[in-house]
Amino acid sequence: MRTNVSEERFGAHGDHRDPIRLSRGAIDGYRYRRVFLSGLTHAVEFGDSPILIGERINPTGKKKLREAYKSGDTAYILREAVSQVDAGSHILDVNAGVPGIDEAATLEATVEAIQGVVDIPLQIDSSDPKAIEAGLRVCNGKPIVNSVNGEPEVLANILPLVKKYGATRISINPQTMNDSVLEAIGRRHTSEETVKAFYLAREVGFDNINMDLIAGLTSDTVESFSATVDKLLELDPENITIHTLSMKRASNMTKASMFYGIEEGKAVSKMLSYAGEK
Asked: Which positions ≥6 away from 248 have C-beta within 8 Å?
């Protein structure tokens, strides 16, 4: 099997390769490529062990970080960067999407400042093409670019851009390939748009694509989730990451007290088991 299936829990991005499946792949004549990200002096290889991506420099749901961005408190942001590296993060996600600020200028300045105190690779996280280019322009080494959505106009602007600046891997994240589940969780894209985004990325020249799924979404079932896994395997991306649903304190689902019980937990376990078997 060519696709690596990994799990994400508690904010840690895993990228695992099963030695049994590796041996099977070698027998089938398929050789796994070695894929690296790099900062100024430090490189990270995908595939040999779990990869931890620190996401505390992402203002979503973080009031103190949003205020730090608005007030220009770079020291606070740098402390968050250093503490994540000290805690074992291999890559740092950098996001400056705060309403009321110049995201492009702020992201550029933040990337430059962070690179002055840590040397691990970065993940440039934005849906704004101008902000992404600003971050990539000053980023040392090869980063990840995160949060590209499937809208045709956005993809037409961002995919050539990240290719130009040498981004190593892109993630196209359907979350599910069931359109009724997408509607239930308030997503604006469709499964068809996900497929189109995947093939457009291939046309631009990307040969290292990750796709994210979430096990345990509202109204999803084991059968529906299994069908989603099968559809992604047909596309044959280089990596599939399975997330388990995490309830953010400020999310609408948390406010509505939509918490999972034992039966839902059993269903999620079956979803993860099916993905692991594939």
From this structure: 60, 61, 254
- Statement: the pTM of the whole predicted model exceeds 0.70: no
- Distance from chain centroid for Cα 62: 19
Where does 185-257 have alpha helices with state H?
A: 191-204, 222-235, 252-255
The residues with which 244 forms a beta bridge, in sequence order, are: 215
For the record, the structure tokens of 8 come out as: 């994400």
Nearest to 97 by CA among 138, 52, 144, 62: 62
Per-residue pLDDT of the chain (278 residues; tens, 9 = 90+): 334 444 332 233 333 334 333 333 333 444 445 667 788 788 888 765 788 999 999 998 899 999 999 999 999 999 999 999 999 999 999 999 999 999 999 999 999 999 999 999 999 999 888 999 999 999 998 888 887 666 778 888 888 888 888 766 788 889 999 999 999 888 888 999 999 999 999 998 988 888 989 988 888 999 999 999 999 999 999 888 888 865 555 555 444 444 454 456 678 888 888 887 77
Give the three-state DSSP class for 95. Answer: coil
Q: Which two tokens stand for residue 128?
A: 């704004």
As a whole number of angstroms, the distance between CA 92 and CA 115 comes to 10
Q: Which amino acid is at 134?
A: A
DSSP for residue 32: P
- Cα 7 from chain centroid (whole Å): 12
For residue 238, which of 67, 11, 87, 30 has the smallest C-alpha distance? 30
Helix, strand or coil for residue 210? strand
Q: Could you count the other beta carbons within 10 Å of the beta carbon of residue 43? A: 14
